[in-house]
Design brief:
Benzoyl_CoA_Oase_BoxB; mainly alpha; 13 helices; binds fe (ii) ion; oxidoreductase activity; two-stranded antiparallel ribbon; 7% strand; Ferritin-like_SF; single chain; Ribonucleotide Reductase, subunit A
Length: 475
Amino acid sequence: MSSINYADKIPNNVNLSEDRTLQRALEHWQPNYLQWWRDMGPEGSHDYEVYLRTAVSVDPQGWAQFGYVRMPEYRWGIFLNPPEPGRKIHFGDHLGEDVWQEVPGEHRANLRRIIVTQGDTEPASVEQQRHLGLTCPSQYDLRNLFQVNVEEGRHLWAMVYLLHKYFGRDGREEAEALLERRSGDRDNPRILGAFNEKTPDWLSFYMFTYFTDRDGKFQLCALAESGFDPLARTTRFMLTEEAHHMFVGESGVARVIQRTCEVMNQLKTDEPDKVRAAGVIDLPTIQRYLNFHFSVTIDLFGADQSSNAATFYSSGLKGRFEEGKRNDDHRLQHDTYRILDVVDGRLVEKEVPMLNALNEVLRDDYIKDSIGGVERWNRIIEKAGIPFRLQVPHKAFNRRIGTLAGVKVSPDGRVVSDAEWNAHVGEWLPTEEDRAFVASLMGRVVEPGKFANWIAPPVMGINRQPVNFEYVRFN
Ligand SMILES: [Fe+2]
Ligand SMILES: [Fe+2]
């Protein structure tokens, strides 16, 4: 392994071959990464040739190449968007100063923590999804799963590059630890809650890529504003790949709904039992999965009041979503924001200093964005003439983090007693039985152009290939 020419082996636009120390550090890390991929990457996939896109530059016109790749040989590259000449920090206490090309000493610990937390989510999702290939509904979907997986691997590389280049020995230790934690492990779990949940079936996978990869988008957008320029530039490029992940989620759920509606209309029924008996997923179960993934994901934004969030912003490390498009003073010292509080067992709004509420600001931006796709799912149901609407639950529903963790709230936003919660939780969140039913549908379909009964084919293939293209060659 040590004789690999990294200048050739790792596609990059950071002049890797000119920085011998960095090159050596990555040389030590790469075999461990590959071992992690073999142990924790997609199960049984290592000999498959998969029609994948690989990032080869940051040119918006042609940043990726498509071709067959064995995944352990995927060329995980390091790409940063080009620097913007004269870029200034545009929020917080350092507003108007030049962006940093090196880590400022006083912000080092916080920056490291931000990068490690982001980096940890990338391998975590690969681990969560590692068994899904065994039950894929089609080759097309299998390929999309693998595409998401290799790109999450590349996102790990993106964060590890920053740790190695800018954080010295601490950074190298953190990079090793990123390969040692395991999703769901009792002793050494991943850092954030949602990344320790299981992704046991494909409905969960689509919900995860719709909702949780979208959390990724919002975190990356906030980091793309950072005064630490290398972080801003690398996250900006990661967003290019993230769009496809959310597409996989949105179109995946859409195709499940499409198929369910077809069967409901054929059978002229809306009874979940009859719909299930026909081998498709009933709409109330889809709603419960949605409730679960939405609520678990919005916890990822953190506590509704957070002094860390204020520090990250004021010190110029992490901005707001679309910071540059906002018309305020970008310091926020005199602004307030409304968050939810619980008073006498009721939800009430409370005004707090905005700086402390920046997690909530980002969460609310996220919620607005995620509602769009749910509306598009509803249009499919509407077109089929079925009187059912999917809804995102109230943001206080099923929360584990922040003020709302202490109360039980129904999906429509009523604080409920423990008794009422227990009586209805089976209507609100996936039950064991729901999960067992969904699991029972998961068989492996791998003939080109064939799809499992519970999901409609996509409208188009990948990279203008036909839907029945051979996306995976099994060897
Ligand atoms: Fe990612
Ligand atoms: Fe992603």
